[in-house]
Amino acid sequence: MVASVEQVNVGPDIMDVYTSVPDGKGPFPAIVVIMNAFGVAEFTKTMCDRFAKEGYLAVAPDLFHTISDEMSEASGKSKRELLDDTQIISDVESTIGFLNNNPLVESGKMGITGFCCGGRIAWMMAAVSDSFSATIPYYGGNLFAVWGDNDVTPFDMANNINCPILFHFGENDDNPSQQDMLTLDKELTSLGKDYRFYTYPEAGHAFMDFSDKVRHNQRASAMSWPRTLDFLEKHVKN
Fold this sequence. Notes:
- The chain is α/β, with parallel strands linked by helices.
- The protein has six helices and eight strands; from the N terminus they run βββαβααβαββαβα.
- Helix 3 crosses helix 4.
């Protein structure tokens, strides 16, 4: 496995993309890993590396690339709170273009996953792009909220999701809550979508994040990971 930081053009801007390439000659199936609220930090990079060790060329775009520390301080908001769905879509579409132009990526074999706010984005991108064969949101909250200047929430986009969904929930999470899960379940069922939900007992938000010593739940993490790999094996690799 070889990790590097590549640079991708997004309009007039340049965005860093953490890239983890499996050992071997390739081409490899690919997965886009969407960061959590802490950006492309240790946890997100480690998840990319874990996917690479399973044979996926994994990339994590830096969705904070247009948001400076000064902007965050001046607004009194976190960088996550300043994310805009229109910009996010452009960033991830540019990441898709980067993968499609990479000779190490196997054509037509691409999935997307994300953690926390990244889970929300993974859901949204599965609705606005036809590039993905699977989407795997981990405890993606704020699906009923608009980010930025548009007036459409990710939940509103559910009818446009055109790939199978695997969604991991924590039983003790408030966002997404178990009531949110029931609402999503009802909507996806009515739309005839291909999906599977798992809820992990005694787990809360960010249960996968080993860098969060308070919220990390080893049992939920250990249970969800093979389910994620099996889902990718079925829908992306094969």
